[in-house]
Amino acid sequence: MAIEEPRYTVIDSAPPFERRLYSAFVVAETQMDGDFDAASRSGFRRIASYIFGNNLQAEVGEQRKIAMTAPVTVAPIEQGWRVHFVMPSAESLQSLPQPLSPQIQLRKVPEHEVVAVRFSGWTTQATIQAQTDQLRSWALAKKLKLSPQVQVARYDDPFTLPWNRRNEILIQIEP
């Protein structure tokens, strides 16, 4: 069964690098402390709880499940990490149930451009840094101005073999 991903158009491509224009989407996000791996695991569980029914649809007074999407994205923030899931495209801020956990927020992400690099394997700090450096070099050669924030996007479940994993580094292009 295919899992929905956020919609985007490829503007420029030189595999494994791409420049993409993402359509607007809604995310469920949480902030976590700890190292990258611990924040990723805990953040995933917290948001998974929301999409599996730890929520309230106010109009009907019931909880409901929300379809799983990919990727799970982790980005460093001033105080730890931000972990988010993109909500299904059929959902909006108005249609989504409210999280029962005050640690989960819903937010609309406007249309935006990013540069991306796709890679397989584990998302270790060394791999993330190496892929980020290569992506920034590619973008610099294209004379693109990038945000300092790097997002790590992971598309597969934890049981996927490392060589079959799809990971990406995403960096937003600044105007």
Tell me the layout of helices and strands:
Blueprint: E1 8-14, E2 17-22, E3 25-32, H1 36-51, E4 55-56, E5 72-77, E6 80-86, E7 98-99, E8 105-109, E9 112-119, H2 125-141, E10 151-154, E11 167-172
General description of the model:
The chain is of the alpha+beta class and 175 residues long. It contains two helices and eleven strands; from the N terminus they run E-E-E-H-E-E-E-E-E-E-H-E-E. A hairpin with a 2-residue loop joins strand 5 (72-77) and strand 6 (80-86). The chain is globular. The termini are far apart. The model has no long low-confidence stretch (mean pLDDT 95).
Number of helical segments with 4 or more residues = 2
Helix coverage percent of residues? 10-25%
What series of H and E elements makes up the topology? Answer: EEEHEEEEEEHEE
Radius of gyration: 16 Å
Q: How many strand units?
A: 11
Structural class: alpha+beta
Q: Detail the poorly predicted runs.
A: none
Q: Let me know the average pLDDT.
A: 95
Biggest β-sheet: strands ordered side by side in the sheet: 1-2-9-11-10-5-6-3-8
Q: Multimeric state of these chains?
A: single chain
